[in-house]
DNA sequence: ACAATAATAGTAATGATTATTGTTTTTAAA
DNA sequence: TTTAAAAACAATAATCATTACTATTATTGT
């Protein structure tokens, strides 16, 4: 494996992902790291995110629309996206076994993994708007 | 609603999606329609795909990577992507109720829908390569 | 201190898609 | 069967997120 040298910017990227629960995008991470390192470049953020994902320290969340998000919580869980505010919430993974079992019965080959994302309107938005738009 | 005029190119786009089971991309549809209409433009394909999706005649399939695909089968089903050949297969939707029920119990708001995609290696690829890469 | 090389900033390139603009069809009615 | 309004169109530019490139800077072991 490729040698690794210390990097204060990579540390800053990782520290932010670990401390937040906001599932930030590369751009949001970039903005945050820029406070501490005003000359950091977006490419550096992307490169370090890719690296941290390779080593399993973080997880990349890709959805069907919009930019990728990053998660410092690498434990097994799904996500829920509020279609009003766009916030990403964690969801328990308890149906995972049922899904995988059913999938294996109906699949045209091996089933190695699956992506599952839920959509709805979160309680915060339901409360503040009083409707479902 | 906006008026609709006949369009041979839209007909050709729709006919191809309806007759194939390959879940083609916009570009693949473009290539196909180009045989019959050599001067068709990619923009026309995209515009007509968007239109056909709006009217519910076809479905757009967005995945976490790669271009969107289009499906003439609008019935309720999931998809399976072979990570070796990239082909997209249909999967039964029988676990849908279980997933929605479990989701509603653990969600931070209403649950309106979910996206679920399976990944593995299809039997065709398992057979022809003899391994799982 | 000094090379070897990883990490970086800045910028260019990419791929899929959407937007724009001026021209061509389609359509219904004169 | 012209005509005029609007849809559909081809060609092209613009967009967004991301990756690739290149020359410079920082980190590390000796």
List the helices and strands and how they pair.
The structure is a homodimer of 133-residue chains.
Chain A: H1 8-19, H2 26-36, H3 42-54, E1 59-61, E2 69-71, E3 78-82, E4 88-91, H4 96-106, E5 113-120, H5 123-129
Parallel strand pairs in A: 3-5
Antiparallel strand pairs in A: 1-2, 3-4
Helix pairs in contact in A: 1-2, 1-3, 2-3
Chain A binds a DNA duplex (30 and 30 nucleotides) through residues 2-7, 9-10, 25-27, 39-44, 46-48, 50, 66-68.
Describe this structure in words.
The structure is a homodimer of 133-residue chains. In chain A, 41% of the residues lie in helices and 17% in strands. With 133 residues, chain A is α+β, with helices and mostly antiparallel strands. Chain A folds into two domains: 2-71, Winged helix-like DNA-binding domain superfamily/Winged helix DNA-binding domain (Arc Repressor Mutant, subunit A); 79-128, Ferric-uptake regulator, C-terminal dimerisarion domain (Dna Ligase, domain 1), CATH 3.30.1490.190. Chain A has a three-stranded mixed sheet with strand order 4-3-5, with no helix packed on it. In chain A, strands 1-2 form a two-stranded antiparallel sheet. In chain A, strand 1 and strand 2 form a beta hairpin. In chain A, helix 1 (8-19) packs across helix 2 and helix 2 packs across helix 3. The radius of gyration of chain A is 18 Å and the shape is flat. The N and C termini of chain A lie far apart (50 Å). The mean pLDDT of chain A is 94. Chain A binds chain B through residues 62-65, 80, 82-83, 89, 91-92, 94-95, 98-99, 102-103, 106-126, 132, and chain B through 62-65, 80, 82-83, 89, 91-92, 94-95, 98-99, 102-103, 106-126, 132. Strand 5 of chain A pairs antiparallel with strand 5 (113-120) of chain B, so a sheet runs across the interface. Chain A binds a DNA duplex (30 and 30 nucleotides) through helix 3.
């Amino acid at each position: 494996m490729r040698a690794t040298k210390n990097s204060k910017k990579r540390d800053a990227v990782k520290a932010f992902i670990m401390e937040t629960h906001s599932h930030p995008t590369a751009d949001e991470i970039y903005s945050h790291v820029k406070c501490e390192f005003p000359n950091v470049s977006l490419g550096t953020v992307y490169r370090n995110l890719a690296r941290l994902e390779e080593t399993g320290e973080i997880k990349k969340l890709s959805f069907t629309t919009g930019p990728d998000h990053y998660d410092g919580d690498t434990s097994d869980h799904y996500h829920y996206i509020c279609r009003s505010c766009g916030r990403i919430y964690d969801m328990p993974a308890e149906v995972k076994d049922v899904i995988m079992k059913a999938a294996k019965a109906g699949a045209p080959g091996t089933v190695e993994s699956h992506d599952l994302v839920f959509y709805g309107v979160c309680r915060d938005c339901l409360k503040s708007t009083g409707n479902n738009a």
